[in-house]
Amino acid sequence: MRGGGSQLQRRSFWSGVKSVQTQAAAAPAMDSSMEAVSVPETERLLFDGIRAIGYNDADATVMRDAMMWAQLRDNNQGIIKLTSGGLAKSGDGQPSLEIDTPTGGRLNGHQAMSMVVINRAVEIAIEKALTSNAGIVGTFNTSQSMGAVGFYAEKIAAQGLIGLVFATSPEFVAPHGAKQPILGTNPITCAVPTDQGTFLMDQVSRSRSSSRTAVAAEPQSWHQRPSLSQS
């Protein structure tokens, strides 16, 4: 599935070129035991695999989209989650908004899948930002991994908003020269809509992110347009 010879639309932010058509990276050579699978077929198989675990159609759609977003960007938060058992279902809980203000909220996941909970938090944050100029939603009590954080920030930017997504994690990382882990991996993601497409920064120091997440959305008009000159 990787590459597959398809054309990808890529935008160059630093060269001043409006848009550039580039050939997707060539798929690695396959031996006789390997089989190429198209993107639509991969999406279908992934959706069916998620449904087989017990997730409903709506949740499976969110999870499929999040994992395919990662897979098509060579991010390790893709379909390996299905094949490695990373999508185990913790119950039938549904997220509920425990704190609700015009610009903020706190979403209890009730042990629902993190991807589903974070996606709902993004929807709420967008609604608040579009009506109140800012939206900040925190989540807790979720299960499994939220996947690639950039997937959610890009959704915010698609609405003409600046999206910030943060995640906490347990102590996985030891400081330089130390043996005891005292730091989290704490992904930080920012997505900004520009006239040349979405500028997305997804900074993660490890593949695993925790399930307690904060999502923020702000109107682009609050900020100066970022400089696109190379530095």
Characterize the structure shown.
The chain has 5 helices and 9 strands; from the N terminus they run ββαααββαβαββββ. With 231 residues, the protein is α+β, with helices and mostly antiparallel strands. The protein has 2 domains: 7-83, no CATH class; 96-222, Malate/L-lactate/L-sulpholactate dehydrogenase, NADPH binding domain (Ribosomal Protein S8, Chain: A, domain 1, 2-Layer Sandwich). A 7-stranded mixed beta sheet has the order 3-4-5-9-6-7-8, covered by helices on one side. Strands 1-2 form a two-stranded antiparallel ribbon. The two termini are 35 Å apart.
| Fraction in helix | 25-40%
The CATH H-level homologous superfamily of the largest domain: Malate/L-lactate/L-sulpholactate dehydrogenase, NADPH binding domain
| Biggest β-sheet: strands ordered side by side in the sheet | 3-4-5-9-6-7-8
Span from first to last CA? 35 Å
Radius of gyration: 19 Å
Q: Which CATH first-tier class of the largest domain would you pick?
A: Alpha Beta
Q: What is the H-and-E element order?
A: EEHHHEEHEHEEEE
Mean pLDDT: 80
Whole-number total of structural domains: 2
CATH topology of the largest domain: Ribosomal Protein S8, Chain: A, domain 1
Class inferred from helices and paired strands: alpha+beta
State the helix count: 5
Biggest sheet descriptor = 7 strands, mixed
The CATH architecture assignment of the largest domain turns out to be: 2-Layer Sandwich
Tell me the overall shape.
globular
Query: Got a strand count?
Result: 9
Low-confidence stretches: 1-24, 207-213, 220-231
Per DSSP, what share of the residues sits in E-state strands of 2 or more residues? Answer: 15-25%
